[in-house]
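**User:** You know discrete backbone vocabularies at least as well as I do. Would you mind producing a protein record, from residues through to fold? Write it directly below this note and I will take it from there.

**Assistant:**
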Amino acid sequence: MPSKKKQYRVFIASPSDLAQERRAFKEIIDELNDGFAAGADTTLVPLAWEETFSTVGRRSQSVINDLVDQCDCFVLVLHRRWGQKAPDSNYSSYTEEEFYRALERFQKTGEPRIFIFLKNIDSAFMADPGEQLKKVLAFRRQLEETRQVLYRTFNDSVSFSQELNEHLKALIKGKLPAIGSARNIVMLPLLAIERVEKAEGEAERLRKEAEALRERAEAKDLQITKTALFLADKAAKAAHDGRIEEARQNFAIATDGTNNLDVLSLAAEFHFRIGELNRAEELLKHSLSISGPDEVTNYTAAAYGTLGLIYQNRDDLDMAETMHRKALEIQQLLGDQEPMVSLFSNLRLLLEKRGEFEKAEEINDKAIEVNKQLGRKIVSKQVTVALAIPDNDPIGLSSSIAIAPSGTLQGISIEVDISHTWVGDLQLMLMSPSGQKVLLHDRQGNSGDDLLSTYSLVSVPALEILIGNEIKGDWVLVVRDLSALDVGKLNKWSLELSYH
């Protein structure tokens, strides 16, 4: 007798400004039913996807509520609108009512699984939100604060389709990540934060001087600059505390109409580190247009260096190389060797990815020379492990590298080579000889195969807590597979340390 197919009923709730995403919802379900879901002996049943559910005037909410009560998976998608007003409800919109109805059932029974997808909002709208958007922004902050449900951001209908596809695959395979995990802390460069704080104080001093001289127009401009600096500083602190939505919204207001390079640079760094590459690129290009693209300053060098990383993330290696070399050229003219080490490292990784190993070796030699000029030494070590990672085991697999020299850590790079059929299962943590722990990879990558990655101070700012520590002793890499079914192994990993 043929086995009975498992069935998941998937409900979508969204306001009227997401018609493309509603169509994409149905298309993705159809594609999965024809392929992945069919292979897993599963059927996905879409509920409430028809555009009429989001565009008609008054509707029978009891019909919608019945569908919410039947669903196994509830998908909420929000952009700038909060939804149709609900005069016959205790909620401010029907969309809100549907969400809380699903959430109440989930809290009582564990069903339905709830996915929330938040479309990224242009900073200009966030800086001056209307009534509907204010409610959306408040809801986003509440989601982050309570961490009761899974939520992700996306840019357009294409990236929404990708996110929905991965989440529904994870639902079918029983691989949804745990809810209520730790906050995603974003550490921004201390030097950049200090510059903002210093500039804020200077702007206030100049504003008072201008007021004393009755130069009201200048005083007003300085007050605007001071406010932008204050909000950027506030945003940086929120990011460090894991309040990413608050930070995002404060940076949107801070950068709206400002030409202050400290504000723009810090905001660009924030958006880069949370993966919002388009916004980071936009801010960096704006800052270059202000400072001058050929100016020999730390601002221009840093902007080109971060643009290089953005293009590297997109696999636009030619453009990435152009940006890295431009940044290097400026740093060489400035005579600032410290940033050159990271730039050489990024350029070396790019060339290796392109298969230009001789050029990569030449760049590496230059990095070693700069480290010598800075009075640093380098120790590197690689271990071949070739061991299976325990499946669905929070203890995981530990591998150590013993470092013999003694010294104070100045720079660090970790390379890993892992074979795995679902990298979204994996969590990687590095533990220093002193026992300090840094999370390198936390279940990113969804259903992608294999993890071949390099982690450095640029890609994992949390590694900064290790700088200044003793390097001698055992450095331990812990690899955990936190979901069942898909398996893999740690092939090898390496550690490179620069030290005094």
